[in-house]
Amino acid sequence: MNNKKYKLSALASLSMVLAACGGGGNKAPTTEQKDKPPVTVSAPAPTAAFVHVSETEPMIGDFVELILLSSSRTEKISDIQWTQIAGNPVTFLADKSKLISFRAKSAGNYAFEVSYRKADGSTEKITSEVTVSQQEATITAALGYAMQEGQMPNRSRASLAAYYYQESFTPDKVEWSLVSGGNLEFEPSEDGRSIFFDPPEVEEDTVFDFQVNVTKNETTFTDTVSILVEDAPPISENNVIAYRHRLAKVHSYNPASKYADVLQKCTYSNTLRYDLTCTFAELPLLGQEYEKPTVEQVMDRVLVSHDWMGERFEEFLRQNDQHDDFKYLLRAVTAIVISSDVNPSYYTALSGAIHLSPDYFVTSFDEYLTYLKSPDFRASFGSKLQYSTRWELKNKTAESDAQYLLYHELAHANDYFPKSKWPFYSDSQRLLDAVYPDIQRSNMQSGLLSRAMPLNSTELLALGKVLQTGAEPTEEQQAFLPEDIIHFFENDSASQFYNYASIQEDYASLFHAAMLKAREDSDVVVSIHDKNGDMKWGQAGRIGKADIKPRVSYVVSRVLPEFTELDTFLESLPEPTMLDVNQSTPANSSPLVTSDRTWLNNK
């Protein structure tokens, strides 16, 4: 694959800038309406740039994009800063990017100023105005979600989607067209509501304008959406490059952090190399600097694609860490990356950074539209098997999603870089060099657990490779019935089926199950289903099982030694509870615990 030509910018992941604007009428669009170009607002000569406005007559409820473009298209502009200078206050979530998008919630005139630095070092400003009509939009087009082709990290397909403001709105027909920008092939979803496409190669920053026509009862509603595809330097195809797919633009959440200049280079860059990772002197573990980091010290290590992601993460730490668990656990990381192109979340010893999907922290529809929503690439694994497994959290709260995520991923961090080894790392050591010998010899904490108290079901361990890595199931595995899986699982010491993915996942899954129970009284509920989805067996609170408690003790005492109530907690655990297969049906079948998104109904 040639990675040279494109970079998708600002508002969404892989730098794809997608948002909605325009639109709305209550009648079928005429040819003139379809062909009407977006507005271009130019500053008086001799400016080096101009602003592309995506819609001439936006309505209430529409998204509007303003895109800063170099007049020559190839001249580099930097240090971008957008500011609203007139009109009812609006929210735009990427004020330092070439593209901003805002949702017009009321009629009136709006004005924006953008400042930028030219290639010669001088600065300029441009003012742009947008007038929102009194009409209310019925539909709006915006960022949809991206489908990942294969496992992470791989190239994603970009997507646009039509959203309907009337909850019961069911269109008769949805049609998309490319209005301007050049050649770009796209594929519609089955219902036409979304389109998918591969970002094209470009020689210069290029705007593509799409139009969607949504027809119901012979009335057609129209909206326009603009995307910006930026030119970018090539990515090396050398095998030592860690990320050979285009990453989103990220920046230090706290620009005054003493690590602001190295966070991206050391953790989330297309130049990051396996053989030249940063040293502990350049970017140490938090725990090498602080015995108990403050929230401010944690936030100095946060790298984001959009500032709201850092804001929500900071709010979460301040409001949901009364026991200081997460601050202690975060000592084993060098950085926290929250970016529009991270999905699923993961930890890597390459950089010592934890990478979190913004989907766990989003609180509004506007935020929701700034990142790509990729279905879990593992969803189709195991489709040839005669059974399926599911899990959920009992007594789930609004914060359970992020709590689960952090307990799980930070268990990985403390597995690779346990507290007992922090004093022995030298400043000159590279992170990966420090941990690689333990990885090779399976001497990480999870490896020691697997030798001391291993999982015993060879059948489920082999099936774990099918369900988590996509390995082709054997004929014997395809013949297993739910009753076989029940027998294997009941007699083993896993807290849930995800434990069988790897020894590292076994370790992290035991930890998150224990801590969610200890702090939130939330049990992990697991179940086994037949091909029709009917539940054949289910159980809650497996960490109370006699042969699982010692494994939980082993993990928690090493990951979070500050949890001094561990022995009392283990003694208080009840025996697992069987589910009534006729009444209980755990809903989700993925490690991702889906949030309550009631705000989507109030978009």
Plain-language structure description:
The chain is α+β, with helices and mostly antiparallel strands. Helices cover 23% and strands 24% of the residues. Strands 1, 2, 12, 15 and 16 form a 5-stranded antiparallel β-sheet that branches. The chain has a 5-stranded mixed β-sheet with strand order 17-18-19-21-20. Strands 3-4-5-7 form a 4-stranded antiparallel β-sheet, with no helix packed on it. Strand 8 and strand 9 form a beta hairpin. The longest helix is centred in the C-terminal third of the chain and has 18 residues, at 503-520. It is globular and about 70 Å long.
Question: Would you kindly provide a brief summary of this structure?
Answer:
Helix content is 23%, strand content 24%. It is α+β, with helices and mostly antiparallel strands and 603 residues long.
Strand-helix topology:
Elements: E1 6-8, E2 17-21, H1 31-35, E3 39-41, E4 49-53, E5 63-70, E6 78-86, E7 99-103, E8 108-117, E9 123-132, E10 139-143, E11 158-164, E12 173-180, E13 186-188, E14 194-197, E15 206-216, E16 219-231, E17 251-252, H2 263-267, H3 286-289, H4 295-299, E18 302-304, H5 307-319, H6 325-329, E19 335-338, E20 346-348, E21 353-356, H7 365-368, E22 387-393, H8 400-416, H9 431-440, H10 445-452, H11 458-469, H12 475-479, H13 482-490, H14 503-520, E23 524-530, E24 535-540, H15 549-559, H16 566-572, E25 577-578
Parallel strand pairs: 18-19, 19-21
Antiparallel strand pairs: 1-16, 2-16, 3-4, 4-5, 5-7, 6-8, 8-9, 10-11, 11-14, 12-15, 13-14, 15-16, 17-18, 20-21, 22-23, 23-24, 24-25
Helix pairs in contact: 8-14, 10-14, 14-15
